Amino acid sequence: MSDTFAKGLLALLLGLSLAACGGGGGGGGGSSDPQTTSTTPTPKAPATPDEPATPVPEQEPDFTPGPLTRCDSASYPSLTWTQCEAENYAVTLQNPSTHAELLPGVLAATTAYQTARLTLAISDPARQPNPNSCTSVLLCPVDPRVQDWQSRGGLVEPVLFTSRSGATLSGHVWATEEGPAQRPGIVIINGSVIGFEQIYWYAAQALAKAGFEVMTFDAQGEGMSDQFGEAPDYLEDAFAGTPGVGLLAPDGYRDNGLGGNGLPFYDGGQDALNFFLSTPDAPYQPVASRSTGTSHTDKQQRRVEAGRNAAFNPLWQLIDTDHLGLAGHSYGAEAASWLAQQDNRVDTAVAWDQLCVPVSPSPDEASAIINTPVNRPAGVPSPAVYGLGTPCFGAPDEPLAPIRKPVFGISSDYALAPLPYPVAPDPTLKSEASTQYSQAGVDSGTVVIRGGTHYDYNDVPVAIPASLRGIDLVTWYTVAWFKKYLQHDPLGETMLLSTRWRNDAATGAVDPAGDANAFSWHYHSRLAITREDGSAFVCEDLRRGCAGQVPAEKDGETVSYSFMDKIQ
């Protein structure tokens, strides 16, 4: 591959990276009457029966909706609606305006990260992470608050392994020194373009503290992972789904990952899961490439023998392989949603902006984003991207498995390059995928962060537009879902049913209008699950709330929940 070709693609990549995925009718959010219908069978037996079950606190005997605000009933068009939208959009500025004291630490942590990238040319010259978005230092800031994991009782093992295209992928495996002998496993699939691994370490650490073993990694074309594969698959899965780059692909590669599709995340997520489940008796071997059917096992073996790649997951003994989940952000959310149904080993998934439904044929990324109704608020394409739509896009061309596993989504009012809404959006658009899963008979839900953006799922505490409390809400619901559906711990159900995010003091303290309700008033947040006793809980409007929820003071957590408290 020529330097000219690589440099040309780098220029295009950097030009697109600021506008690409990172890594979202009637007026107001409205309300729905609470409903109770049957959904899924009673969950499986607990994964750790030797531990005492967490008692389920009593539910609210009398339901009181709210607190709601003038924005919930504001009609469009009206001066009130316009004022409410201005206040709502101002929430996106909370993150960049609140963490100025962390800037020196961010600079130090980012410098250390970039120094490690630069030394690869000397320490491991076969690695080729450049060009990618982290080649531009400003696009990959690192949170200093998650850098001392081992001093807080954490275990973390850096790993390298060979993908199906022959690229060297970089990752980490996380757990805690204390905990059960075996723990459910979770793989986190990062987002595209600037969704490098380190910005999801907060979630890995919170999940590890909650009793899981977790793997994070850089998809091909991200962070520390190789940009290109090995001959004859140099271009397979390159450029991490960057829109537009695929137009430059040679014949035979436009359907195999050179920008504009999700194979670095769909295939990369499955490759990471394969590595995560490897053991000394069953060492990791990459599956054959999509483009040519070539096996790159020889490269994996060479690098293992040289002491560079890991032969198997170094924390393999801790995994409960019968209870596995996926989490993912952006393109990783698309992949997590799809793989949860397609891969028989996976039990459930949490999709961070946003949950999608597998379809065949899968639409390409660009057309899916342009044509989804959420990005056509006035009936025409918008200059802003407000969401990613309901169908899973950029997925492999494979027969679809039936929907049979529970999945959960978290979304935000705004998405990429956030701009205020010019008109009131359809309040059902961001919960459509969850509704379809419920209609298929599986537990599901979607919560929408009021004033949040596509970056509420990253732990970058400066510069990027995001709400202040979104990352804490993301952590709460992610831990809760996996506790219920992987650990089968009653505490997970209690957390899911809690009313705390309807009246969160920390949210109200920083909100322009003092609104303490963290759920969107533009879009409905919903939850439809089977409780431990076999009964159904269905709430189509969590902002308003529903009978059967658990009062915040009885949900088993402290008054002010934060991810920082949970990773200590």
Structural write-up:
- The protein is an alpha/beta fold and 568 residues long.
- It has one domain (3-566): Rossmann fold, CATH 3.40.50.
- Helices cover 27% and strands 12% of the residues.
- It has helices at 3-17, 70-73, 79-90, 94-98, 103-123, 201-209, 263-276, 297-305, 331-342, 365-371, 432-439, 470-487, 490-497, 505-510, 563-566; strands spanning 154-162, 168-176, 183-189, 213-217, 319-329, 348-352, 407-412, 444-449, 526-530, 536-539.
- A ten-stranded mixed sheet has the order 1-2-4-3-5-6-7-8-9-10, with helices on both faces.
- The relative contact order is 0.17.
- Residues 1-57 have low confidence and may be disordered.
- It comes from Alcanivorax hongdengensis A-11-3.
- Residues 23-70 are annotated as: Disordered.
- Residues 1-22 form the signal peptide.
- This is Alpha/beta hydrolase.
Short précis:
The chain is α/β, with parallel strands linked by helices and 568 residues long. The chain has one domain (3-566): 3-Layer(aba) Sandwich (Rossmann fold), CATH 3.40.50. Helices cover 27% and strands 12% of the residues.
Shape: globular
CATH fold descriptor: Rossmann fold
β-strand amount: 5-15%
Supply the CATH class.
Alpha Beta
State the end-to-end distance: 46 Å
CATH superfamily: Alpha/Beta hydrolase fold, catalytic domain
The average pLDDT value, as a whole number, equals 88
Number of domains: 1
Structural class: alpha/beta
H and E order = HHHHHEEEHEHHEHEHEHEHHHEEH
Largest sheet: 10 strands, mixed
Helical content, roughly?
25-40%
- Low-pLDDT segments: 1-57
In total, the number of strands is 10
Widest beta sheet: strand line-up = 1-2-4-3-5-6-7-8-9-10
Count of separate DSSP helical elements: 15
Signal peptide: 1-22
Biased composition (Low complexity): 32-53
Organism: Alcanivorax hongdengensis A-11-3
Keywords: Signal
